[in-house]
Design goal:
Blueprint lengths: L2 H31 L18 E4 L9 E10 L2 E12 L3 E8 L8 E8 L5 E6 L13 E7 L8 E9 L1 E3 L4 E3 L6 E2 L7 H5 L2 E10 L9
Parallel strand pairs: 7-11
Antiparallel strand pairs: 1-4, 2-3, 2-12, 4-5, 5-6, 7-8, 8-12, 9-10
């Protein structure tokens, strides 16, 4: 075999090896691109930008103040209640949620309560990881509560804000139930039965005779 033939064979081998390396690299990239999240809800954001707004204009003649009330629950029942500062009565009341920007943590969320378009109240809520999940998840979602009747000097629930729960059969975090709750069906809902930790955000529309406990 002459020198030219040997050089030709070596060049061919180098070309084959280079193609093999390139194809292998492309195969790895494709596998990475097609990889799916380990859990279906893993990439779900705890919060979104939607705000819940309620028409409370029917109470303007019977109430002059809004008192924010937040009740915290676990599967044993209510574990805490926070209520306090007065807001002036309004035609609408908005409730929104946002992750705290000042801390690098998914375990604290801020609830904003605003009458009309005025400045309102902001309160931090502590979140808890989903029990039994193989990794630490803080997955919460809000559900509006439809109010059947607005009554002064009575706690009116307006929003359910609850944790997902771990489904060991399907290996997934779930939050399955109604898109809207009512005062009557909340205790029969899937959220109430299975959510391991949740808050009920509501208000007392006061005629100024209700006792106020500082928040």
């Amino acid at each position: 075999m002459n020198k030219q033939a040997i050089i030709t064979i070596l060049l061919a081998l180098v070309a084959i090896l280079s193609v093999s390396i390139i194809l292998k690299g492309q195969g790895n990239e494709t596998k990475s691109a097609e990889a799916k999240p380990k859990y279906a809800t893993e990439q779900k954001k705890t919060q979104d930008d939607a705000v819940l707004t309620y028409d409370i204009s029917s109470l303007q003649d019977s109430a002059s103040l809004i008192i924010l009330v937040i009740r915290e629950y676990d599967q044993r029942g209510m574990v805490d209640e926070m209520k306090g500062q007065r807001l002036k009565m309004a035609k609408t009341l908005s409730i929104g949620f946002s992750l705290r920007q000042s801390v690098q943590s998914d375990s604290i969320v801020t609830v904003y309560v605003r009458p009309d378009s005025r400045n309102g109240l902001a309160r931090d809520l502590v979140l808890k990881p989903v029990p039994d999940a193989p990794e630490t998840f803080y997955l919460y979602e809000k559900v509006p509560i439809q109010v059947s009747a607005l009554r002064p000097n009575t706690f009116i629930p307006l929003a359910f804000y609850g944790s997902f729960w771990w489904d060991s059969n399907y290996k997934i975090c779930r939050f399955c139930g109604e898109k809207e709750l009512t005062e009557e069906n909340i205790k029969e809902s899937e959220y109430f039965k299975y959510s391991p930790h949740y808050y009920i955000i509501g208000a007392i529309f006061s005629d100024n005779t209700a006792r106020v406990i500082p928040l």
